[in-house]
Amino acid sequence: MRFRDLEIIVTVKRIRSLRLIVRPTGEVLLNVPIGVAEEEVERFLSAHYSWILRSQQKMQNREAQQKRIRYESGEMHLFFGKELPLRVEPERGRESVDFRPDEIVMYAHPDRTPMQRKKLLYQGYYVQFMPVFNALFEKWSERLTQEMSPVTRLANPNKYKYFNVSIKLMRTEWGSCTPGNRRMSFNIDLVRLPKACIEYVVVHEFTHIDRCDHSPAFWALCDRRLAAVGLPSSKEIRAQMKQMIRVCGGY
């Protein structure tokens, strides 16, 4: 459908509420519950029009930032919340990435393109990320299971266990959870953030098992869980995440 100067792809689904998505390409998707009137759709789009434009601009800025990153010596890259310079060394044998306290050293073939160097860096990121992530995921799986009442645990002992978890590069989300399919996905770019931020995202997605929305009740439950282990509120951590990512030009 056409709304003002926007072309919007509309899909009617069996969902509870209207949902807007702005893809990395700038495309606007609108999921509409069955039976919603056209007038309600237009009111919803009117209320979110400025948000759509800001999101499209953010995507364009992010794309421009990514084009400027060439994964060359001298660039700064985040690693668990710390800015480290990248040093690229020519290597015609086995390529690798070495994460040191004061720098990231990439041993890459001299003919590698920026995209190939990016892939090599993320392979290194993945190796470093998985032990940290697995420990946090297991911690919260066990913690939330133990916090269940005996009756609830007996009825649903695997509520917080045995999820199909994937780690991948995600352009617009830090994580996602689909309780019905027992699936969770996490953004490999979390490796660039402090470990407290990674733990927050794990808690956030586990909280979606209890609340499949972002209602005040969801944030209250998420914040109670964070506070129980001495972490700041969701709002504080999200602000920190945004600031960290701005340091090195998007994600």
What would you say about this model in short?
The protein is 44% helix and 22% strand. It contains six helices and eleven strands.
Could you give the topology of this structure?
Elements: E1 2-3, E2 6-13, E3 19-22, E4 28-33, H1 38-68, E5 76-79, E6 82-90, E7 96-99, E8 104-108, H2 114-147, H3 150-155, E9 164-168, E10 175-178, E11 183-187, H4 195-207, H5 216-228, H6 234-247
Helix pairs in contact: 2-4, 4-5, 4-6
Provide the descriptors you would attach to this structure in a database record.
alpha/beta; 251 residues; 4-stranded mixed sheet; 44% helix; single chain; globular
Proportion in helices: 40-55%
Gross geometry: globular
Rg calc: 21 Å
Q: Approximately what portion of the residues adopt beta-strand conformation?
A: 15-25%
Report the order of strands and helices. EEEEHEEEEHHEEEHHH
Report the total helices: 6
Topology, number of strands: 11
- The structure class reads alpha/beta
In words, what does this structure look like?
With 251 residues, this protein is of the alpha/beta class. It is 44% helix and 22% strand. It has helices at 38-68, 114-147, 150-155, 195-207, 216-228, 234-247; strands at 2-3, 6-13, 19-22, 28-33, 76-79, 82-90, 96-99, 104-108, 164-168, 175-178, 183-187. It has a 4-stranded mixed beta sheet, covered by helices on one side. Strand 3 and strand 4 (28-33) form a beta hairpin. Helix 2 (114-147) packs across helix 4 (195-207), helix 4 packs across helix 5 (216-228) and helix 4 (195-207) packs across helix 6 (234-247). The longest helix is centred in the middle third of the chain and has 34 residues, at 114-147.
